[in-house]
Design brief:
alpha/beta
Length: 172
């Protein structure tokens, strides 16, 4: 099984691209648990919610694994996002979250670039002024952890074509 993660700062087209890739490859995909959490609680996450959010993300990812352990799975974010956002907003020691992340394997990260207009999403996004600094945090973390990634930018069509090409090189 090949696992591809859409990652990056807020409002960079991850969810849209994840859906389009899942359709293109007829592959299962997991959604972002944080979105469901915020919609359900009707509030921004707090530091005390981090463990529940991480567990929810893991459960969504695990639920979309194909039973035959072959093929492709698309993840609209993963614990890397949880880790970066938790550090950004709450700081502190997050060794338990890093350990959870390190226990999982992903074959490719598609780092969505902040190269189109920011779109508000109540309770989900801070604002366009932090998007570039968050993007840098994602980029630096991917590089520091030596994770396989490809930057994805341009128009929606260009993003989709680049992502398809990258996934095809995985020999799914």
């Amino acid at each position: 099984m090949k696992r591809v993660v859409l990652t990056g700062a807020e409002s960079t087209g991850k969810s849209t691209l994840a859906c389009k890739l899942a359709q293109h490859f007829n592959a299962p995909h997991s959604t972002e648990y944080l979105r469901a959490f915020v919609n359900e609680t009707q509030r921004a996450p707090q530091a005390t919610d981090l463990e529940a959010i991480a567990k929810g993300q893991i459960a969504l990812e695990d639920a979309c694994r194909p039973s035959n352990k072959e093929g492709l799975v698309i993840h609209d974010t993963n614990l890397l996002s949880n880790l970066i956002y938790a550090e950004h907003y709450f700081g502190g020691n997050l060794d338990w979250l890093l350990a959870q992340f390190n226990a999982r394997h992903y074959d490719l990260y598609l780092l969505c670039l902040p190269d189109f207009p920011w779109v508000p999403d109540r309770g989900q996004r801070e604002g366009p002024e932090v998007r570039d600094s968050l993007h840098q945090k994602f980029l630096l973390r991917l590089e520091a952890m030596h994770l396989p990634f490809t930057p994805i930018g341009g128009s929606p069509g260009e993003r989709l074509q680049t992502a398809i090409h990258c996934i095809q090189t995985l020999d799914v």
